[in-house]
Amino acid sequence: MNLRSVLQSSAVLRGRHLWGQLRERMAQDVNHAAVLGNVTEGGGLTPRFAFMAVMSCGIAILGLLQSSAAVVIGAMLISPLMGPIVQLGFSLCVVDFRMMGRSLLALLGGIVLALGTAMLIVWLSPLREATGEILARTHPNLFDLLVAVLSGLAGGYAVITRKGEAIVGVAIATALMPPLAVVAFGLATGDMGIAGGAFLLFMTNLLAIALSVTLIAKWYGFGMDNVAKHAMWQGGVIAVTFLLLALPLGIALRDIGRQTWIANQTRTVVQQYLHAQGGSIERLDVVRRDGLLSVDLVAMVPGYLPHAQQALAAQLARQLAQTPLLRVRQTLEANDSGRRDRADLDGLRLSVNALTQQAAQLRAEANAVVAQTVRAQLDGLEAGVEVDDGQLLLSIAVATDEGLDESALAALRDAVSSRVPGWTVIVWNRDALPQDPALVPIAGDDGERRLTR
């Protein structure tokens, strides 16, 4: 072994020695028995814990339904869930299964009480829409895991050093109760997507805090008398849990990054195209869901651009390597004595098309009702019924075999007219012309029989 290797090994050993001395000195300054007693006392399922869990989740769901960040923060401040979570972390550190059981029982009781309270409030509330505060807690990512880890380390440090005032900041950072309230909202409204996303965020916070507390407690000398097997078991649990959490959250963070890149590229392409045409973006919404990309654009243009949709779709397909579902609406801008009048041309065109389709459907339904009414009045007679809704004309050609004379035909015409007021009714034998010689049956362009004057 050369001199350089010896010096390097000596430096590593000296660093480990100093690090171990620092850790030992920090552990000696802590009253381990007092800390464990405080943790055990503050993490049980007590009447105070149950009451505060109900109050905290009630406040949280009301703040979420109103999209009030201030009310949600108030719910975080009084949330009692930190107690049993910290106790769970210490129980893992010292390998105390009785303490672990108490903490899990308290967590289970608090979760059940909180979910029941929040779901009851949602059922009784007229507000059922998912607000921004609710949706913000349905898509956790890797950053949420990092926040929870750092908050758990800070919370464990505050408990061990008896600096409890830091718990307030930790409670705000990790936000344990609001995600649980969002789970209740999703369950109460039957939206499993919201419930599942919020539950993942809640479990991420819970497990990350508990395991981070375990790490900081181990650093301060708790559980040092455990056997080596326990240390390996603890390390395995922590590593596997963080890995299982990090994988889906990392994928979610990647998807968020992809969504941000797509939105930025889309805005760049649209801005360049509209700038060349003298226009600008009024509103641009880019949504990517289940692999499908939809782009909704409202553009301000000096004149109508007939090929804007096709040109933008082609440019976006080249830039994004996928064809988006694009909807372009153009708003015409004009200056008149400093005032701008806007005409949403594409929106108007879409509205006219929709109204035309609705009118055609209503006409078809009305014609069907008229024909059905007439056939019911015929009472089984063999006759052909022709409807001209444009001129409100009804032609009833009765088969000659029915043997109706002129008076019977007139009676039938009067009976039908009473059922369809406002319509001109013509009743005639099939082998004769109508009584009014100005009315003759002809074939329309669509092949259907019509009456004309």
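Above is the first protein from milestone M3; the second protein from the same milestone is given next.
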Amino acid sequence: MREIKFALLGFGGIAQSHKHGYDILKNEGFPVKLVAICDIDENQFHAKQEINLGASVRSDLEGINLYTSVDDMLANEDFEVVDICLPSYMHKEYAIKMMRAGKHVQSEKPMALSHADCEEMLAVAKECDKKLMIGQCLHFEAGYEYLKKCVDEGTFGKLRTLSFERLGGLPNWGFELWYQDINKSGGCPFDLHIHDVDMANYVLGLPKTVSSVAQTAEMPLQYVNTRMTYGDGALVFATASWDEASNTGFRMAYRARFEKASLIYNGGSVKVCCDDGTEPYEAEGTRSGERKDRMAEEIRAIALAVGDPDYVNTVNDPRCAAGSIYLTEKIIESARKNGETVVL
């Protein structure tokens, strides 16, 4: 495959995680090259940023051109793909701007803060004939890939129940604390809950109904608990919290009960417990040392979509991401009606 040149827009904590992904691919010899980074705050180029997974690693930016103006970067750089790591409320605006400028787009989640905005982004991608991919990183996380595989292949029979957890403290990072402004971040539902809501949608499709309750603390909808029902009888439960004590650390987990086994995931490998009496074991591909970097795999996917005419992106279709925003809107609707069941 020919070399694909990228530019990175925004250089906060998640962008610095993306930069690590580019470094992995470079060391592997995969043909991608990060040629430019833009951030309005030039101090970001030299800072380590704290996020919910801990402090980022200070990046080596040698050989990469740095900008504080998007228009200057567009005027002076030759690249095919822009990797958007801006605050959530900017995703739609800059994705559309970049596609109209002739660039393919990978954008961080959430796709946008409304389903209507997602549909506009999809329409522009079609109009401009550009690839659009949303960074729903769990699609490339080994523990969640294994869950998807087991559902698709019926490895342990039918899925009965699936419970997700994603818990952390109120984000105290980000430019001008934008996470804590619900009009800019969408709050816990659009920033944190969206991961597991999207995974339910990716694995099982949109549910028949949702019911959600939420609690307000320092900001609205800071804790959210959702139940989703499916036509085949499967039940999905998802809890997300920005209301944990600051010293509890971050936790992501799931438990999946199939007809013949249970899967238990606590952020590392997947433990498989079968009903046939065999000893529990770690699922292949999820053990330490086997797992790939999810950011590197995201970048690989959009690069293949752009540079390989035979590659079809079935892992991270933007229409799935748009559907997850629609589902999140229904969850918020239910939460604001004190848990009233909403039919999709």
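Note on the second protein: The chain has a mean pLDDT of 95.
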